[in-house]
Amino acid sequence: MSTIASGEKAVALSARSLVYSYDSAPALKGVTMQVGRGEILSITGASGSGKSTLLLCLAGVLPPDAGEVRLGERVISAESESDRSRLRRSQIGVVFQFGQLVPEMTALENVALPLLLGGSRRSAAEAAARTWLERFEVGGLADARPTDMSGGQAQRVAIARAMVTEPEIVFADEPTGALDSLSGELVMTQLVRVARDAGTTVVLVTHDARVSAYGDREITLRDGELDAQPADLIDMSAS
User: Fold this and answer.
1) Residue 234: inside a domain, yes or no?
2) DSSP 228
3) Is residue 118 part of a domain?
4) What is the mean pLDDT of the chain?
5) Residue 166's domain is classified under what CATH number?
6) Which of 44-48, 96-100, 196-200 has the lowest mean pLDDT?
7) In a domain, 92, yes or no
8) Average pLDDT of span 123-129
């Protein structure tokens, strides 16, 4: 089992001894790690190394078979699916490789959706959505539907949707994987800029070294375990 430190930052998210298997095939084999508040952490590894599974466990999408995930003092891995779903609509944002925008909705409606699901009034939700679209320089696409956008534009709208609730932490799984290099660079530059301005913690899964370089720190998964360097090892037994 490997343990990875987050440096001197206050801890935003921590995981202890995470185990997860698909049927009898182990994807995570006792991963322990933590992410500092406001940190941008890159998780890298070969295809099949378990990095996307780790992200889904950290984000509360998948409950681990063993171990725990804490967001601050909250043990989210022990909560019900409905509680974790509510958490992802407020304190956690998730971005996937293909954005997963609702095709029938405009950019404005897509970005406002998490706020509406959380009980916000439509006028307030749409005002916040416009602000976040502007922050990602796609404000002019407010009335456009996903089929009318380029891949890079759609991904920026998806990231705006993930951040509209001003979450504590955003998880991004291969956010540039479906984009050309120029569009990917623009998406990452804007994601990092906006996250820094907002003080948002970002956990980024990628196989692309150019994307990983945007992180403050990089960890690598190999066959479901963290490939730790000696200087990164710490004892979390008392935490």
Assistant:
1) no
2) -
3) yes
4) 88
5) 3.40.50.300
6) 96-100
7) yes
8) 97
Listed in sequence order, the DSSP H helices in the chain are 51-58, 81-88, 107-117, 122-135, 151-163, 181-198, 209-212
What SS3 state is found at 96? coil
Domain that holds residue 206: 39-61+80-217
Indicate the pairing of strand 66-71 with strand 74-75.
Answer: antiparallel
pTM: 0.86
C-alpha to C-alpha distance for 152 and 116, rounded to whole angstroms: 25
3-state SS, residue 38: coil
Helical packing angle, 181-198 and 151-163, nearest 10°:
20
Q: Write out pLDDT tens, residues 140-182.
A: 999 999 999 999 899 999 999 999 999 999 999 988 888 888 8
Which pair of tokens denotes residue 49? Answer: 């190394």
Q: How many CB atoms lie within 10 A of CB 123?
A: 9
Distance between CA atoms of 19 and 41, rounded to whole angstroms?
Answer: 20
Q: Taking Cα atoms as reference points, which of 169, 204, 203, 193 lies closest to residue 93?
A: 169
pLDDT in tens, 7-40: 456 999 999 999 999 988 999 999 999 999 999 9
Q: How many domains does the chain have?
A: 1
Domain annotation covers residue 100: yes
